[in-house]
Amino acid sequence: MQDQNKPQEPLELSGDANAPEIVAAATAAPDTTPSIEELLRQAELKAEEHHDAWLRAKAETENMRRRAQDDIAKASKFAIEKFAESLLPVKDTLEMALADTNPDTLRTGVDMTLKNLLSAFEKSGVREENPVGQKFDPNKHQAIGMVEAEQEPNTVVNVLQKGYLIADRVLRPAMVMVAKGKDA
User: Fold this and answer.
1) Long-range contacts: 163-170, Cβ < 8 Å, 24+?
2) 174-180 and 141-148 as β-strands: parallel, antiparallel, unpaired?
């Protein structure tokens, strides 16, 4: 019975280099690893945090989409605003020319109107296409007929109606007469 009252000596693990650390860990304070409940609570908080961030990102994306749609609608609705503003002086000069019955004043008013209209076209990027002497281009010209001429075949001889371009895009093709070959 004396052996029972005697303090026990630590066990020695022979041949293990980590034995002192294992013994120290076994005799140290109680286990400090978090419990399953604590781990679950932390995971739930993390999940809630990520869900909140996702909802905020989703709302921000929806707001950006809605703003972009509004901007597109406004751009479409008011796209012609600059051109319409540049046409107002054209209307004014036409009205002034028609208000005066003097033929000389009418001619001056029509000239002023044409100058204002050309200025409005220039500001808006509308260019006149007068292809006399150029090769026929079916993308920019509409051939009305062919005529015998001294020019090379498929060259524009006469322009019946000028064409118009907006930034190299055809607004209206030029209506033209094209030279046909001499042997045709």
Assistant:
1) 163/128, 163/129, 163/130, 163/131, 164/121, 164/126, 164/127, 164/128, 164/129, 165/126, 165/127, 165/129, 165/140, 166/124, 166/125, 166/126, 166/127, 167/125, 170/129, 170/139, 170/140
2) parallel
Condensed to tens digits (0 to 9), the pLDDT of residues 14-29 reads: 555 555 555 555 555 5
pTM (predicted TM-score): 0.56
| 8-state DSSP, 8 | P
Place of tokens 């100058």: 115
Q: Nearest Cα to 181, choosing from 137, 127, 136?
A: 136
Separation between Cα atoms, residue 130 and residue 132, nearest integer Å:
6
> What architecture is domain 125-184?
Roll (2.30)
Element (H, E) at 45: helix 36-77
Question: Which tens digits make up the pLDDT trace of 76-123?
Answer: 888 888 888 888 999 988 888 888 878 787 888 888 889 999 999 988
Q: Give the pair of three-digit tokens for residue 42.
A: 């932390």
The structural domains of the chain, with segments of one domain joined by +, span 125-184
Question: Can you read off the two tokens belonging to residue 94?
Answer: 């036409």
